[in-house]
What we know:
Blueprint: E1 8-10, E2 16-18, E3 27-32, H1 41-52, E4 58-63, H2 75-86, H3 105-113, H4 124-136, E5 152-155, E6 161-165, H5 171-181
Parallel strand pairs: 3-4
Antiparallel strand pairs: 1-2, 3-5, 5-6
Amino acid sequence: MATIYDFTVTKPGGERFPLYQFEGKPVLIVNTASKCKYTHQFDDLQKLYDRYKEQGLHVIGFPCNQFAKQEPGSSEEAAAFCQLNYGVKFPMFAKIDVNGNTAHPLFDFLKQAGPFAGFDESDVQAKLLKLMISDNTPEWLHGDAIKWNFTKFLIDGEGRVVQRFEPIASIDEIQSGIEALL
């Protein structure tokens, strides 16, 4: 059975990084963008990283420009933006695609292992997200595609997806998932 340890990603400078280096540790994988309505989540992600890194948590970000072109710069510019504006100390990797024929194989795996649970039609934020997707990237509205920036996948110490969090998930929900793994 595949795990995240079967994949290698690229750092902004081009260096390849095998994810097996996280073996035995929980990991929160996030697709990010610097010009997104959810960009403020970098604050919460850094706080989670600070709170749980001593217990082994790794947070890793992957800039993506597939959603309303909200990450137009280079990988290096995206990483610098995160550090300068949000004090991000967790690793930011090279820009990638998360959907479609050019999606990075890691995200193809994540989508299969952590399928989309659907929209909660009683939640106003979920309705707004669904409308934003319909207006901008309707091809990814259905199925397990990544719906928008700041979709998060929580990975256990065995490299398996245990939970998928959509961009509108609360920090408390994500924190509860992390604490259940630690």
